Amino acid sequence: MADKLHFSLVSPAKELFSGDVDHVIAPGSEGEFGVLVNHAPFMTTLKNGVVRVLEGDTVAMRLFVRGGFADVTPAGLTILAEEAVDLSKVDAAKVSEDLEAARSKLLSEGKDSPHQGALQAQIDYLTDLKAAVVH
């Protein structure tokens, strides 16, 4: 289909989506960007956030990515995410539970913990994911 954008979203665990769509909006590290068919080629890093896949003016799918890269070529858009989940399959209560557990662990280990950076990164990710699930 010449009027459709080929879009693939891949994480280390699996390919979450591959198909032809009308429009994709992604959370670039320099700001949100949209890609339509025949977009000029570019590559950028991604920040934690929601990738919206549109069919016409309707959001058909919302995927949450934890960082990664987006590559726009004449063949389409490929997102290589560090981690990605389909927001329609995320349990908000479980995300809240995991967030509280990570916060508790960070408090119990203290500021001098060798895990402080990793725990804070997990808290940041879960906070962003929780916000995406409720919106």
From TrEMBL:
<keyword id="KW-0472">Membrane</keyword>
<keyword id="KW-0406">Ion transport</keyword>
<keyword id="KW-0139">CF(1)</keyword>
<comment type="subunit">
    <text>F-type ATPases have 2 components, CF(1) - the catalytic core - and CF(0) - the membrane proton channel. CF(1) has five subunits: alpha(3), beta(3), gamma(1), delta(1), epsilon(1). CF(0) has three main subunits: a, b and c.</text>
</comment>
<comment type="similarity">
    <text>Belongs to the ATPase epsilon chain family.</text>
</comment>
<dbReference type="Pfam" id="PF02823">
    <property type="entry name" value="ATP-synt_DE_N"/>
</dbReference>
<protein>
    <recommendedName>
        <fullName>ATP synthase epsilon chain</fullName>
    </recommendedName>
</protein>
<keyword id="KW-1003">Cell membrane</keyword>
<dbReference type="InterPro" id="IPR020546">
    <property type="entry name" value="ATP_synth_F1_dsu/esu_N"/>
</dbReference>
<keyword id="KW-0813">Transport</keyword>
<comment type="function">
    <text>Produces ATP from ADP in the presence of a proton gradient across the membrane.</text>
</comment>
<feature type="domain" description="ATP synthase F1 complex delta/epsilon subunit N-terminal">
    <location>
        <begin position="5"/>
        <end position="84"/>
    </location>
</feature>
<dbReference type="InterPro" id="IPR001469">
    <property type="entry name" value="ATP_synth_F1_dsu/esu"/>
</dbReference>
<keyword id="KW-0066">ATP synthesis</keyword>
<keyword id="KW-0375">Hydrogen ion transport</keyword>
<dbReference type="InterPro" id="IPR036771">
    <property type="entry name" value="ATPsynth_dsu/esu_N"/>
</dbReference>
